Request: fold
Amino acid sequence: MTTTVVIIVAVVLVLAVLGFFLVRGRTGGGQGLRRRFGPEYERTVAEHGGDTKAAEQELAERVKLHGSLHEQPLSPEAREGYAGRWAMVQETFIDSPREAVAEADALLARLARDRGFPDGDSFEEQTAALSVHHAGELDGYRRVHTAVHDHSSTEEMRTALIEARALFDVLLGDTPSDSGRRGRHETKNPHGTENPHQTKNLHGTEGRTTA
Reply:
């Protein structure tokens, strides 16, 4: 092996090591990824059969691909329109739960797209990007998407729709990210205020009220 080849190989190795530590520095390594992704970290490790190294490599790649994404603002008219459509989803659930979760799934995909995330036509790509910025609120969206394509029970669909509200709220701009502080089962209308005439059957408490 000539001196030139040795030098080239050494340079390549140094660049590879620097690249590794650069990515690791951006993500904070294993502990940084665990803090950033929360439950999503554990879910990814489970998907890789407990292989922590492979899971962390995937999560680091997500950060590399989507970490610089800047969410686009919604106009007041768009926010009001989305809030109204979510209210209709909740009403529809009473008589047609499967239709309601299908609409919720499509609504979240469109809302994420309008905020600047990848188009919902690729669910995996969109959720990968969302996980980098809203990992704490993502599980409900996944549950709704699964409920649309599986033979979920009405109770499973109800729970999925309630949990999906967390991501809807944070994308709509009603709550800060990682908004579990509100409580996963608190009854609010899509504008964040109590509605005395809104049905609460979705939460399994009260029946339909009249104006």
In short: The radius of gyration is 21 Å. The first helix runs from residue 3 to 27. Residues 134 and 177 are 6 Å apart (CA to CA).
